[in-house]
Structure formats: structure tokens, C-alpha cells
Amino acid sequence: MKKSDRNGENSSSSQKKKSFGLQIGEKDVASSIIGGIVEKGFSTPVSQPQVTVLPFPVARHRSHGPHWAPRTSSSSIHDKDDEDDGEYGDHTDFNLVAANAKPIQRKQKKDLDLKQWQELTNDDNTTKKQHKYNGSAKPSDPKKESGNTNSEVPKSHKQNAGNVGIDAVESNLDNGTQSTIKSKDISRKVKVESKDEIMMDVGELSMPTSHGSTSMESEIDAENRARLEKMSTDEITEAQAEIMKKMDPALIKILQKRGQDKMSKKSSTSAIASIDAKNQKESVISETDNAQKMIKTNPNHSTTGLESKSNASSLWDAWSTNVEAARDLRFSLDGDVLNDYGNESAKGIYGSENAAERDFLRTEGDPSAIGYTIKEALALTRSVVPGQRALALHLLASVLYKAQDNICRNKTGSTLKIGNQNNIVDWEALWAFALGPEPELALSLRMCLDDNHNSVVIACARVIQCVLSYDFNEHFFNISEKTGIYEKDIYTGPIFRSRPKIDVGFLHGGFWKYNTKPSNIFPFNKIMRDEEGDEEEEHTIKDDIVVATQDILAGLVRMGILPRIRYLLESDPSTALEETLISILVAIARHSPTCADAIMKCERLVQLIVHRFTTNNQMGVDFIKIKSVTLIKVLAQSGRCKEFVDNGTFQKLTWHLYRCALGIDDWMNKETEKVKLWSTLLIEQLRFWKVCLQYGYCASYFADMFPALFIWLDVPSFEKLRGKNVINEFLSITNEAYLVLEGLTRTLPNFYLKKIDHSETWSWSNVGPMIDLALKWVSLKSDPELFTFLSLKKEGLTPMLWVISAVFHMLFGVLKSVFPEDNSKKLPWLPDFVPKIGLHIIKNELLSFNKVNKDSFFDFLSQCRHESDQETSLASVCCLNGLISVVVLINKLINLNNTENKVSSIEHDNITIHEKILTDGILECCTSEMTTFMKLTSSAGQLSQSVEMFGRGGPAPGVGVGWGAAGGGFWSSNILVAQMDARLVLQLVEIYFKNPSNEVTVERISCLFDLLLLVGPRDRGIMDKTLGILLQPSNLKFLDVSIRNSLDQKTFEWEYTEEELLTFSENLISHYKNRWLNIKKSKSKSKVKPSDPSSKKTRFSLDTIQEDVDQSIQSTLVTEWAHQRLPLPNHWFLSPISTVDLVNLPVKPTFPEVARSGLFFLLGLEAISNHVSSNSIKGVPVIWKLHVLSVTLFAGLDLLEEEKTRDVYSTLQESYGKILDKKISEIGSKNSIDFLKFDQEIHDSYTTFIETLVENFAGASYGNLLYGRQISMYLHRCVGGQIRLSTWNALSNIRALELLPPLEKCLSQEEGYLEPPEDDEMLLEAYVKSWVCGALDKSVTRNSVSFTLVIHHLSDFIFGDHVGDKVSLRNKLAKSILRDYSRKSEHEGMMVKLIQYKKPASYQQKLDQAEDLLLLPEIERRFMVLREACEGNATLLSIVEKLNNTIMKQQ
Fold first, then answer.
1. Where is the region Disordered (predicted)?
2. Gap between the Cα atoms of 440 and 377, Å rounded
3. Total-model pTM
4. Taking Cα atoms as reference points, which of 1032, 1030, 1056, 1061 lies closest to residue 1044?
5. Rounded to whole angstroms, how far apart are CA atoms 208 and 217?
């Protein structure tokens, strides 16, 4: 194909044309660059593209070719370049024969007219696009729609667009304004014409077809209509009567109903089409319905598309719809979502045939006003022009950052609502789509990182930094380290829950797993495969893309991003690029142990970063050095601390701490920016030192670093700091300095230990001066300046609270080192600083004593918690935690003091008074503030459940930031504040419960349940302590009393003894710890050594080895989400009675022992549930409670042999039945159908569980009432139809229907089993099948609920009023039971009961309650129905008459 053919006549460059005042001629260099998007890596020059309108980058795929111009009907003009086309040239001269060429005539088919196929296809496509989402959450495929949409562009549109391209280029600078106006006018004209065309199509949709047919059915219909027009009315009536005689009456009714349905559909379709036509007048949005679902618009404005999401069957369907809809969202260069869908350019449907129209629409006015989709921006990253690649990457970075920002701004909990009518942008769905498989973001970024233009590499690095959520993650970790409470950080790798299994009763809350295996991050190299004789093919780019889809950071590491970063750092990059690259390394190191290990194993990478830190501007400070220290600190947390200390890296990166300290005045006189940089660097260096202290290293460096630390440990003059505006920086350094001292206290030997063998310990001689400095920061009464600073609540309040929190943690560490290892051991003497700290707390009124001082520091902190911003609230709660921890530990030390020994400075009497005052003070605060903080914890208890809404760690993949969960999920400050509140409440509750005089209350037990829902992977100790408090025998005794008080005294004539309650406590604590705190151990390594040639490993075995190596690093300071179960699901406390197989759990109690304890505990919770305001206990759905009772019986009947346990189980069944009845009464009986969807809520293979349960019931129960009640529950009308059908078939097949109890002894009320009447065809057929095969014979004599259900539902269905398909089904069922009656005379009683069955009077108020039998007219009516069902069959009619005579004799 010639270039002239591709470029059209506008490709001529011989004539000079003007575009916005620029002369574009033959030798113009700019004209050879503008507008051409060519794939990188092609050296062959292409022909000069013709500029159409504006020199603005337009994203298109490589297959679309260069910037083509439209062809016109005028003669072609070729330039000199076109004479030599190179390899694309066609030297055949067709111009000589072109005049004689004639078009090829297509053969016409006689039977099929396809003249108007294109118009009708467009009409059908338009209809599908407009109604694509009605009733379905699956979006349309734009790839399939693009081809059809191209043909919809009107011819006038194409002609005008082509003229615009020519006129715009010919305009000059003097006439620039006129050309702009002209372009806008023509654009408006094109829009109007295109709207008219669409309106014409929509109008045709609402009218009968009159343009000819495209199918055989349409032709037949046209012939029939033509024939009917020639017939008279009498002839038509006669023909109809003749047809009616030949057809079956039942078939006629079916056809009539079908015709009515078609007419109703046509009327609704025409109405919808008319509404859509009105909407089309406002905005042409036929191609952007998907994007419109996610855009926030005027609520009063009528929108299309979102209503389909409101009709989605589930949250997952709506979520999938939103993710698919993100494909069509368009963004400005600043990352804003554009809502201009009236413009055809927003469709993204243009190709090589209509590129000129696209360029015209994309470049009118402000070039950034139209925007790009994510896929268009990624396509633009492969342009040959560096500026275009950098522009696309800038857009991607803006979009992703804005998505993260909006996700974190939302409250914790998914923003996805099925009834979302406001068209709010679903940023979670956008984040999921961007990191999903379709855009292939990781591959594009990895390619751009290899670019040879610095601007593109920098832009790409910033996109990667944004994808890895660096800024938001570091903000979270920064606040987390300020608290000083968490000893460990947490890895950010995305994870998902393992599927629940029957061994644990299908309970949710399985082990977490990484989205991709750690072994997939490092593909097997060729050497390993050659050594093992593996002939499999090497991994391809597709394998890398698959891994990147699961985990984008793992995919980037697999694609070799680390060696590329090392190369860029070695090539002396710019400051901006180097800073961004180190930020990426920090994010990679925080991902997982495997990625941290990959950085360490990358040759020369860590050494290069340390070398650049020490050689580049040693006296200067910049962000590169700060982030370098952060990177080494994160790697040290992952278990590499010893290596950094041994090779001198620690000394090199912390040499600023060795410098002789300048005075505080000299520090404040520095420039503001330098002060901030220095303070940030010192903070990171102190945190690095603290990490080494936690590993037991570098404690001996205190003497060398103390001179530099002293100015930060002492209380400064706040007026000077405020005048220099550096108060926040000073206090931030002070906070970290005291946290370092807290780390040093962990290396202190026990105060009473005489021999100290370890050299890396802090000396007790240094502790006294540090305590004196620390107490200055809490001298609120003795230091007026400090008191005034806090009371004003001005700038610096939050950093000051962080400092006080660190001071309390440091004091707690010192006191903890005094505390003996054996709690019962008496102290030989009490150190002087212990009562000194206590008296300091008393004198400065840090607590409320004797209800006199109401303005204590405790009250001040409580006020800050409720009235301040998030960080201030968190700092205040940390202060409260530290204060209470110090006071509690002082009380314990005083109690352990040997009273026979006197303290040198304080008399024993004073110590007793001291103890009483501290005790009274903390208990006074406990009683006054516990209720308030319990309410805060209760309201936050459900926040953690949103993290697991869609399986893989939230609704979207990613790194940190809740893995795409709204509000940040467990990475949000909301959860962090709630967890701090939980720690505070736990301390208060622990103090309260340890006081024997305090009674156990319902609210305090409920509060402990709220705490457990907030426990994360780093809070295993908190859960252990909470379980110990919750399940202590005194609380179980309270539950025992509650059971007997809330239930009838006749039901329980017994009570549990102290020994039994103690056994229950031990069993439950052991079970819960092993069930929820158990860590999944790595698979055992093969006993055969790797060097053994006889051990030929497969690829799977290599995966296992790699994972074992990753987990071989022990005692790290970073916790993994993977391989553990926390956070807990809301039904976690049901596990004792639902865990059938405990093979993998090292527990001593057997299943019956644990189940008995669990049943008692569960009944106790039900007894107090009505008095609890929190949802942590009563908020568990009743479907889970009913399910776990079935799982308990799954293991057999041994559990129910004990009388007490049997009574508890029976009482639980009755309680859950009442809960079910209450729920049905709230939602209505009609709405309660299929309310209990076990196969959706519990497990998708629940039918298999039911079948196994029924087999056990038939084989071992022998008609046990409790077992039968539990099985009959699955026949309740509110249970899903599939589960009811499976239960019935299983019982019928093994002849166990007669084992079910009578209806009055079943769970729930009788009405729940009988109303509303059954209308499921498969269930009704199953009832009749059981009737015919004899499975119900014994159920009649035993008065089983199975026969009651059959006779009730069949009587209502057979003798009820039905039309259409129901009539044929009724006749079918009636014939079956009549034929069965003719063969089995013993079924005569069953038939008589069926005909004479009468609904209970309580359900049918119109009937006389005194009458037990049906009236004679009703019996005659029912026999008439049976005769109609026989459909003229003489044999069946004789059976009906026989049955009639039998009943009449009885009457």
C-alpha cells in the first residue's frame, strides 16, 4: 500500500500550510515529530505524517499506525518522498488501468435481503448498549462494540471533520481567532448532526420495524401480515376457530400467556426507548455508560447505567461491574475524572479509518480537557517521542495518587453500595482495574524504566513509587513508630484468606496467604534446570505478567527491577531520580521477607547506597540520606541487623550522632529548611539505633552518643522554639530520643541480679539521671511554662503529647526491669526511684484523687481524645496507656516489697499511704472513664470486618493501604486509634476484674468481645491476655447464673460446680489460643540433602524449598500477615462446637470436652445477649448459629450422652428457633423465603455437607429428637430451595423421612414450615416422588413432619387456582398420585387425608375454628379439580370416582 494511499492527499508537503501561525514546510523539523506515535525500537524512518489540527499527543495502539489523514475525492498530490517508498513501495503502475476498472458485483441472494443489515445491526447494538446493565452486572465488551460504532458515524460527520482538518491547517496567526471560532461552530454542527442520527435510531427502536427484515422470521411475519390484510373479518374468525379446535387447550393458554408477556415486554421496551431518547438529547452517552456509573453528578440529573448496579444480585456483582466500568473513565493530566460525556471523543472507539475525527474532537480548546483512559495513557508510554511518554506517565501517577488519596479519605468500610444512586466515583474499583490484568501496568512500567531519556525514567519511577503506596505506607509506619507500643512493624504484601474447610465447620478466618508464592518472585534460572535435567521451557514475559497481576511488586521484582535500579544509581542519577529510586527500595523492603532478602542479595546494591551516603556531601543533609537510613533500618528489622553492625554500616549511617553537640541556640539559628532536614535525619538515625537495641546490639554506644542526645532530653524554653518556628522539630527528636532510652531499658539486667555476663547491656548507673530528666517533662504543677504550654492547646500540642507518652514508656521499661521474674517473690528492698516516681505522679496531679481535683492530667488527656484530630487523639490515648501502665506497675512493686525491711529515705507508713493513694487514684479513673472508652471500642469493633469483604485482602490488589480497602483498612489511622483505645480499655478492665469487690457486668464482658475484633497480627499478646480475662472462672460463674435466671427454673434443676467451671475455662482458653493464635508452620524439608544426586526434585518441590528458605529467618522485628489467622471473624467464638478435626492443632482436650465447654459458653452468651448493646455478641447471624449446631452432631451423638450437655443443646435449639421467628416477623413471611442461604453464606458445597449429615442421622440417631429437630430445620420455608431439595432427597433416598419429629416438636413455629405454600417445581415433584416410591408410608403412622409438609403443600398446589404452566404441572402431579393409588391400595388413607386436608385455623382465620372437616361443597370442588387433571383419561376418572365413593361413605 502506498503512503499516498495511507496519508491521503493531505500528506503533500509541497505546499506550505499555516497552523496557528507556524509555517510548516518541506524542511520543517517540528513537522516530522508532531503527531506521530511510533513504537519504540524501530529505526526505520516513516513517512512524514500530516498534521490535522493541533500538535498534541493522541493515545492510540501501535496497530493504528501513524497519524493518518482522511482521504478525499479530489486527485492525489504526492510529494517527492512518496516517490521512493522503500520496502513499502509498490512499483506496479495501476494508474493506466484505473480508468477502466469496474467494481466487483456481489451475487444477490433471492431468499435473504441484506440491504439494510448495517442499519439494523447498529439499532440492535444501540439497544443492547442502552439496556446492557438492566438485570445483569456484567458490562459490555468495548472491543466488540468498537467495530459496530464506527459504522454509526454519519457521512456528514466524516465530511465536516475532514473539512475542518484542512481549514484548521490553512489558518494563519492573524486569523487564529476566526479559525478557533470556526472550529467550535463546526464541532457544534457535527455534534447536532450526530445526535440527530442517534435520535433517529432510537426512534426506530420504539416503533414497529418497517424497513425490511433481516431474518427468515421477519419475512414470514411480513407474508402473514400481508395475507391477513387480504382476508375479511369473518375469514379470520373462521381460521382462528379452526386452529383452536386442533390445538390442546393447555397449549393455547401457554401461548396466550407467552403472547401477553411479549406484548408487555414490547411496551416496556418502547417506554424505555422513549426515556433514553430524552436522555440522548441532553448528552450522547451511548458508549460511556460504564464510566457514567462511577462519576459523581447532579442528583437531580437523570443518569443512565447506575440503576443496573442497584439491581445487582450481590455486592460482588456490583463490585465487578464497577471494576469493568473503570475501563471507560477519562482523566485530565492532573488525575481528575472528567464528566464530559457529550463529546464523541470520550468514546475511545476511533481507528485508522476515522483518525481525523478523533484528532479534531480530542484537540478542540484546552488539550487536557478531554483526557485519557488508563489504557490510552499506557499505550502512549510506548510513543517514540520522549515528551509523550513522560506526559502519559505523569498522568498515570496523578490518577493513582488521587485514587489512593480518595480511598484513604473514606471512612473505613467499603464505599461500595448496591443502592448507590449518586454516581460517586468508586476509587477502590479504579485502583483494582489499574493494577489488574487488562492494562498490564507492571510490564509498561518495567519497559519505561529502561528508557534512555532521564525525564521518562524519573516519571516512571514516580509512578512505581505511587503504585507501591510509598507515601501512605510511610505515613502509617511513622505514626506507628511514634506510639512506642508496637515492637514490630508489619509487612505490606497483599494477602488473601484460605478457603474454609469442613474440619473447622466452614468457619471463616482461615490462614492468610500471599497473593503470589514467594518462590514465584524468583524464577528458576537455566542453570538450576540444567543440573536437575528439567527440559521445561524458560519462563516468558507472560509468566511475569501473571505474577504481576497477583502482586504487582512481586511482578516488578521478578522482572528484574532491582538490577535496573542498581544500574541507575551507579550512573550518577539526578537528585530527584535517586530519591525516588531509594523510596522504591524502601517499599520493596517492606513488602515481604522474600523481597527484603532480594535487596540484600542484589549484588553491590546495599553497598552502593551506603557508599553514596558517606561520600556525597558529607556535611550536608538531604532527603536521599534520610531515605537511605530508612532503607537500612527496614532491612535491619527484617533480620539483617547483625550484618550491618559487623560490617560498620551502623557507624557510617549514624555518624551525625557522634558529633559534638552544638548548643540549642546554634541549632535554632540554622535555616528553617536545614533544621527540618536535620531533625528528620536524626529521627531516622535514632530509629535505626532503636532497632539495633531491640536485637541486643549497640547498647554500649550510649556513652559516645549521650552528649549529642542531652540537648533533646532536657526541657527547653518553649518561647524560643515557638519564635523560631521549630518547636515541632525539637519535640519530634525528643520523642525519638526517649523511645531510644526505652529501648535501652530492655537491655537492662534485672535490678537484683548480681552477675551480668552479657556485655551489650545498659548500666544501672546511667538510669538515675535519665529518670530525673524524664520526670521534668511530666512536672505539670512545678513547671508553669510546661503547664501553660499544654493548657493553651496551640501549636506543638501533639508533639508534646508524643514526648510525654515516650517518657511514660521509658519509665515503664525501668520499672519492669525491677520487677522480679517470679511474681510471687518478695523484693529484698525497694529502689528509691520507685516511690519517687509515684510521689511525682501524686504531686503533679496526673490522676484524680478522692474526687477532689477534677482537672487532672488524666481528664485533660481524655478530653483531647474526644475533641481533637486523629493524631492528637492517638497521642493522648498513648499517654493514657503509658500513665496507667506506670501506676499499675508501681502498685505491684509496692505490694511485693518486703515489709520487714525499711526503705532508707521513706518510712514504711509513708509507703502504705503512697500505695493507697495510687490505688485509689487509678481505680477512681477506672470507674469514671471506663464506660466512655468502652463505647468507643464498641463502635469501632466492626471496622476490621471490611478488610475481608472480597477475599484477597480487600477488594483490590496492591501494596499496603488496606490493599485497596476504603479508608485504608487495617493500615488506616482509624484502626490504629481503635486499637490504642482497646489497649487502654483492656488495662482498665484488667484492674477492675482483679478487684474482688467489683461485680462482673454484662457490658464489661461485651467490651472484651469488642476488643477481640480489633486484634491484628501484631496484637497476639493482647488477645492472649483478653482471653485470660474473659474466660476466667468468675466470669463463667456469672454466665451460669444468667442462664438460670433468664430461663425457666424447671428447665435447669442443676448448676455447674466450681471444678466444672474451672475445666471449662481451661478447655476454652486452650482451644481459642490453638485455634486462632496458631501459626502455620512451613512444610518440613526433605530429609534427603540437596547435594544427593539421587534426589531429583520437581518444580513443585523447588517452590517448597524456596518458601522454607524465606521463613528460616527467625526473631525478626516485622510481622507477616501470612501464615496466621488474625483478625478474627465476627463469629469466632463459635469455633469450640464447630471444630470437628483438630489433627493440625496441638490441643490436649478432645472434641467432646471442648464442645461441651463451648455449648455452655454459647448458651451463657445467649442468656446475656438481650442485655448487651454491642453487636459483637448478638450481631452474629442466626444462620451461623444454626449451622454450628449441625456441625456439633457431625461427629456423632457421643456429645449428647451427658444430661447437662443434652439440656444445653436443646435449649440452644429453642433459643435459635425463637430468634428465627423474630427475624421472620420483622421482614414478613413472604420476604423470608430463601432467607437462610446456607450455600451462599456458609459454603458453596453445603449440599454435600447436608447429604453426609443425613446419612449420619439415619445410621446413628435411631430417631433422636434433638438430631431430628436439627435435620428438620433444613426443611424450613426460609431455607434456600436448593438446600431444602437436597435435604429432602437425601432423607427420601435412605428412607429416613419417618425419623423426623412431629411438626409441633420442630424448631421455630409451625407456620414457618407451612407458609407460604410451596411453589418450587422441583420440590413438589420430589414430594410426589417420595409419595409414589413409598418413602412416606411410615411417616403417616409416626406423624412425622415430612408427611405434614407433603400433604400441606400438595393440597394447596393441586387444589389451588393456577393458570398457564402451573396447570400442566398440577395435572402431572395429580395423575402421578392417582396412578399410585390405583396400584397401592394401602395409600388410600393418604389420599383421603390429602383431599380432606384443611389448613390450621390459626393460619386461615376465615374458616370456623370449631370445624375439623371440610364442608361438602369444598370436597366436591376438589374432586372436580381431580377430574380436570385426568384430562379425559377413563382409567384415572374411574379411580377418582372410586375415591369419591370412599369419602362419601365416611361422611
1. 1-25, 57-163, 169-188
2. 12
3. 0.76
4. 1056
5. 15
